[in-house]
């Protein structure tokens, strides 16, 4: 959301490391809209290779598409004295808070009903993972 900061880090040779969890959307805003009971609006970004963006700016870029690539990419990025972006491709899932209040649950349910009638499908977050986070 603030790409110009990376360009500044390159200009001033600041060894900043940025990890981007890339789900092809503005996930927190998307689920905030849903939690309020609204349809999502302009939150899907599409495919973006932030590693290539980093290289285009003069920094280093690492794209991680498999879990097995994560450690080596992180080690290389943090061993460098250049600014770097580690672009970690992830599956989209709802960033559910640790505690969901009644109003949030009702509004999210309204969103799901609207989504079902508009698209004919509902994509639910992985509830097992959400429950595991609580314990």
UniProtKB/TrEMBL annotation:
Q: What are the residue boundaries of the Thiamine pyrophosphate enzyme TPP-binding domain, all occurrences included? A: 1-88
| Span of the signal peptide | none
Give any GO molecular function from the UniProt entry. catalytic activity
Q: Which UniProt keywords apply?
A: Pyruvate
Q: Tell me the protein's name.
A: Pyruvate oxidase
């Amino acid at each position: 959301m603030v790409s110009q900061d990376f360009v500044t880090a390159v200009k001033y040779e600041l060894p900043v490391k940025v990890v981007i969890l890339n789900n092809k959307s503005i996930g927190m805003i998307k689920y905030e809209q849903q939690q309020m009971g609204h349809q999502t609006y302009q939150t899907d970004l599409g495919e973006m290779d932030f590693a290539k963006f980093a290289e285009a700016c003069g920094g280093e870029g690492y794209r991680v598409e498999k879990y097995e690539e994560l450690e080596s990419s992180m080690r290389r990025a943090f061993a460098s004295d250049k600014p770097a972006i580690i672009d970690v491709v992830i599956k989209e899932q709802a960033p559910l808070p640790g505690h969901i209040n009644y109003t949030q649950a009702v509004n999210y349910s309204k969103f799901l009903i609207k989504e079902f009638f508009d698209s004919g499908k509902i994509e639910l977050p992985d509830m097992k993972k959400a429950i595991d986070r609580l314990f």
